[in-house]
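Example 9 (inverse folding). The structure is encoded as follows.
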């Protein structure tokens, strides 16, 4: 069984293109096609549906995809563990993280980590709650950095509490108040994120049985902030998201003093993560203790 052939198939399925897979893996397109055809000959059935618009897995190929991803992940873990035993700090970490984490934490953390571990490659994917969850299921990332609202799963490692705040135009009548009642969101025009992008916001309203008066629904954080700044409504976002936009905006605590807990999300225990991942997580924890 060839790991390179398996990697070629997984990459072709992920990008829906043999040409893109060749580009990513630094092979020629005919080489990628040959490797996958070789797998199909070996297994005795087709793995890909090839068309003018790209490629897609066959039903049989889809059945094998998760197994192949697991094989690739275990092979990576084997190589990294061997390197660790030999005293070589070499490997790869794939991290999925919220936009706020990517913007406010990761540039400084990755810069320092790269200086300490220059041979460990890090791939950072920016995504929302739903995307990070799916990436974990698909094996696209080793771990995520996100939040969980109720009953943290056993493989959730808390990192930092992040206050949820009402954000208002700086000249809003409520700007002089010490805090904002949640019922205010039922009367004021609200600029709200989509549920799949901000579970933390939706969780608060659902828990308190409040239906916000939605004037605009936006997926991007920066767009929400820009619209609030222009006086088009109020919103509810985390402190980490808006810290760079003060004093352009007014931010107030909300009734109940809600926080979201940002932490490490994994599909397995930390002990079973790769050696590079087990180096990165305490590195991040230490950085947050000093800079959080």
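The amino acid assigned to each position is listed next.
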């Amino acid at each position: 069984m060839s790991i390179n052939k398996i990697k070629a198939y997984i990459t072709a399925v992920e990008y829906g293109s043999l040409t893109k897979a060749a580009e990513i893996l630094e092979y020629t397109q005919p080489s990628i096609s040959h490797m996958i055809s070789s797998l199909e000959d070996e297994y005795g059935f087709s793995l890909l549906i090839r068309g003018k618009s790209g490629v897609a897995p066959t039903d049989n190929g889809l059945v094998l995809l998760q197994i192949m991803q697991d094989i690739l992940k275990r092979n990576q873990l084997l190589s990294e563990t061997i390197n660790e035993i030999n005293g070589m700090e070499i490997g790869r970490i794939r991290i999925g993280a919220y936009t706020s984490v990517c913007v406010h934490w990761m540039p400084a953390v990755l810069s320092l980590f790269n200086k300490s571990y220059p041979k460990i490659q890090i791939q950072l994917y920016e995504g929302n709650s739903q995307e990070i969850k799916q990436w974990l299921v698909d094996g696209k990332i080793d771990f995520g950095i996100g939040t969980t609202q109720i009953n943290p799963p056993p493989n959730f490692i808390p990192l930092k509490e992040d206050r949820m705040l009402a954000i208002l135009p700086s000249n809003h009548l409520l700007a002089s108040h010490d805090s904002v009642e949640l019922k205010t969101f039922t009367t004021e025009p609200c600029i709200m994120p989509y549920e799949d992008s901000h579970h933390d916001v939706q969780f608060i309203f659902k828990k308190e049985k409040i239906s916000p008066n939605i004037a605009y629904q936006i997926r991007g954080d920066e767009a929400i902030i820009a619209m609030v700044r222009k006086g088009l409504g109020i919103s509810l976002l985390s402190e980490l998201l808006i810290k760079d936009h003060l004093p352009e905006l007014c931010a107030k605590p909300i009734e109940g003093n809600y926080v979201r807990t940002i932490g490490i999300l994994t599909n397995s225990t930390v002990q079973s993560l790769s050696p590079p991942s087990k180096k990165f997580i305490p590195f991040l924890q230490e950085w947050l203790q000093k800079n959080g």
